[in-house]
Automatic annotation (TrEMBL):
Name by which UniProt lists this protein: LysR family transcriptional regulator
Keyword DNA-binding belongs to the record: yes
Similarity comment: Belongs to the LysR transcriptional regulatory family.
Coiled-coil residue spans: none
InterPro entries linked to this entry: LysR_HTH_N, LysR_subst-bd, WH-like_DNA-bd_sf, WH_DNA-bd_sf
Taxonomic classification: Bacteria, Bacillati, Actinomycetota, Actinomycetes, Micromonosporales
Keyword vocabulary terms for this entry: DNA-binding, Transcription, Transcription regulation
Residue ranges annotated for the HTH lysR-type domain, each copy included: 58-115
């Protein structure tokens, strides 16, 4: 069906209940322009009518304008952000309220704030606009002859060490590929979309999920990062138990798998790390070490780029290790971009950082 032979209809439905408990659902229907007999009253069956309090066709552009007003907190600010006049923004919002039959905004000081129903509608609009954005991106790809895409999720230390090389290799081999990258530490559970490929930390024997196959990439040992002049900085390795009396800087605010893995190793060495400073991530913890505040222990891949003077000392007896895998959806694993991605990830892992050349 050609795009110029379609109309987009957005139908919100507000369920009954208290204002604070109001839920709004929005459906998007694409209809041929010659389809004249559609009406929202015919569309809603007697059963659905109980939940369908709004049946007017909504203008997507007005939804965008309303969402901008909610995000900005005032009509004037939204007008500035959108490049409109305040009068034009007000007219769009007024028209949307008329179409929905809902009071969406209320005055608050010098600005406005959404009513309870307006807040519910704005929340649902986010999902609608995201879906429309995906449709628009797909249409742009098709216009330009780009028919392929690949979505990749990764965790932070892999992002800085490997992802630039991954993106460079993929876009060199597949210039028309639309590459989607996002940061994610955990494998998604339950229903919902999945990235085509996700670089994850998991047990060494991890084989994947029902929908995805795991490919082991690297066993990444932990190191102790010490400041310049520290006595351990000249040693080839340090037993984990010797770090029990050091001032520790925490580096995992989310308390994820990598941190739990380290705590288990410390407990097996007979102590719990005496954290004195809590940092949110590896770069921040490294900055604290560089300031001479203490040491931090992290996987070697997280210590690839260090300030001058800092030393990463291997940990032994025991050596905490995290295993890194590429989790590839079986639906895309035979596609050339996915196969090439796995090759580049293995090259990165074999060198510890990025592929040569």
């Amino acid at each position: 069906m050609k795009a110029d032979a379609q109309r987009t209809m957005v139908i919100p439905a507000a369920t009954a209940g208290s204002a604070d408990d109001l839920r709004v659902s929005v459906s998007i229907m694409v209809l041929p322009c010659g389809f004249r007999d559609f009406s929202t009253s015919n569309y809603c069956s007697p059963t659905v009518k109980r939940d369908c309090t709004v049946g007017a066709m909504l203008d997507v552009h007005r939804l965008r304008v309303f969402r901008a007003v909610v995000a900005s907190g005032s009509v004037n600010a939204a007008a500035t952000n959108l490049g409109y006049t305040p009068s034009a923004v007000s007219q769009h919002v007024t028209a949307l309220q008329r179409e929905t039959g809902l009071v969406l905004l209320a005055r608050s000081g010098r600005g406005v704030e959404p009513t309870s129903v307006g807040r519910a509608l704005a929340h649902r609009i986010d999902g609608v606009l995201a879906q429309l954005g995906e449709v628009e991106a797909l249409a742009a790809d098709l216009r330009e002859g780009r028919t392929g895409s690949l979505s990749i999720a990764y965790f932070a230390s892999v992002g800085s060490a490997w992802m630039p090389a991954v993106a460079r290799a993929l876009l060199a081999d597949f210039p028309d590929l639309r590459l989607g990258l996002r940061l994610s530490d955990d494998v998604a559970a339950g229903p919902g979309p999945r990235p085509d490929v996700q670089v994850v930390v998991a047990p060494r024997d991890f084989t994947g999920t029902r929908e995805a196959r795991a490919h082991h990439l690297l066993d990444d040992p932990y190191v102790a990062l010490v400041p310049r002049g520290h006595p351990l900085g000249t040693e080839p390795g340090v037993e984990l138990a010797r770090l029990a009396t050091e001032t520790w800087i925490d580096n995992d605010f989310a308390h994820g798998w990598c941190r739990r893995n380290l705590l288990d190793a410390c407990q097996s060495a007979g102590f719990s790390p005496p954290f004195r400073v809590e940092a949110h991530d590896y770069p921040t913890a490294i900055a604290f070490v560089d300031a001479g505040i203490g040491i931090t222990v992290l996987p070697r891949l997280g210590a690839v780029r260090l300030p001058a003077g800092l030393t990463a000392v291997p940990i032994v007896s025991p050596t905490p290790v995290r295993s890194i895998h590429a989790l590839i959806q079986t639906s895309v694993e035979s596609a050339p971009p996915a196969r090439r991605l796995l090759e580049v990830l293995k090259e990165c892992a074999s060198r510890g950082t990025v592929p040569v050349g």
